[in-house]
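Final paragraph of the annual report: two paired records, presented back to back.
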Amino acid sequence: MTDLPTYPDLKGASVLITGGGSGIGAALTEGFVAQGAQVAFIDIAEEPSRRLAAELHDRYGHAPLYLKADLTDVDAVRAAVDEAARDHGLISVLVNNAAWDDRHELTDVDAGYWDKNQAINLRHAFFTAQAVAEGMKASGGGSIINFTSTSFMLNIGEMPSYTAAKAGIIGLTKGLAGKLGPFGIRVNAIAPGWVMTDRQKQLWVTEDALNEMLERQTLKHALQPAEMAGPCLFLASNAASAISAQVLIADGGLL
């Protein structure tokens, strides 16, 4: 990620990323490590997360802190936040990236599935923000970045619980921005388009589907995970000091 700009204020910053072990999250983890930040990331998948940490150590000379936790467990989330703060200092940047974009039929969703989906895609973002807020207040400010999705803006019908949660992320972002802004804490959201993560390519990307998406995008290339790091670094940095309660759409110009 040497082609990304350097933000001096991110060097040494204490950064926490949820779902940082794979996909877009891994690109975000690398992006902040490349800035020289003190990065911790939460992920439930242990093997790929430890592999990523080792790879980044070899590439940059310092490794992110991997924290294994189930984001549906609020106590585990709080414990992970505390561990990250003990190791790296009070968290100044929180990136709520973790998501579960499982496809589901309307008739197949029961209360248990709905609650699990919302817990992964929406609820954890509130409780991680709650857990870092007091430390950010004590530090005089910070930046929270919540990842939403363009899927709910496109009337995609294959995952109604997921799209409901991702719409909720925007409401949460604006509510937190209003609540935390007086303490110098900025809260923004990023809405990626269809990003070609390994998960997407393994499960849902077909030549026809990709061509249809590229036909609708104004930028005629398949979006890659690393392309989400630039917007996130910008919103985390002092370069975005006047920006809060906003949604940055990074979809190749589809919308």
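The closing record of the year follows.
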Amino acid sequence: MSEVNLLVRVAVKEDSVEAIKVEMRKAQEITQAEAGCLRYQFFQDRKAPTMFYVQETYADKDAFLAHANSEHMAAYLAATKDMIESVNMHKVDAV
């Protein structure tokens, strides 16, 4: 199986920027410790502070699915659902 690479853009409500950063840091720490997680990191746009990006790399599809179906991701999604305006996820391949 091959790596799964994702680039995710998350637009956040202006009044939720600081609160979502707390939740992102929690999710990042837990996800980076998952078996098969090679990279999971959030980034904040310097010019548009309500725009965040996630760079994710998993060893294979099974590792990604384990992450996507984990309890901590369900908790993250529940905690941030009212903070997020939109999410755009792109599956990408290294060049």
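The chain has a mean pLDDT of 97. This concludes the annual technical report; the extension proposal builds directly on these records.
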